[in-house]
Write a structure and sequence with these properties.
Elements (H helix, E strand, L loop, with lengths): L1 E6 L2 E3 L6 E8 L6 E7 L6 E6 L5 E3 L7 E6 L2 E6 L8 E8 L5 E3 L3 E5 L2
């Protein structure tokens, strides 16, 4: 079993640079895929950024050049720069094991507004 606990987010002004953190505990494997999704009101959940099973990074086109994913042991971070109103969403930490078990954090709201 895996538990994911997110922190960070909140109300941010346009252009702001918050950092999200996700701490994983439980059965953690080196080959896990780990990253961040987001879901805006009325939209489907979408992949924002992740590390694949060999450690390569992926970014959605909408965040390339603005967001940076990083990790340290069992934590993964999302540094978000130059936030825009369209980045407003609930951000979810995700971990997928080599056996394709999928785990989600509780979600953290990021609202970009002046």
């Amino acid at each position: 079993q895996v538990q994911l606990v997110e922190s960070g987010g909140g109300l941010v002004q346009p252009g702001g640079s918050p950092r999200l953190s996700c701490a994983a505990s439980g059965s953690i494997f080196r080959l896990n895929v780990m990253g961040w999704y987001r879901q805006a009101p009325g939209k489907e959940r979408e992949l924002v950024a992740n590390f694949n099973s060999v450690g390569a990074k992926y970014y959605a086109d909408s965040v390339k050049g603005r967001f940076t994913i990083s990790r340290d042991s069992a934590k993964v971070y999302l540094q978000m720069n130059n936030l825009k109103p369209e980045d407003t969403a609930v951000y979810y930490c995700n971990l997928r094991t080599p056996m394709d078990a999928n785990y989600w954090g509780q979600g953290t709201q990021v609202t970009v507004s002046s």
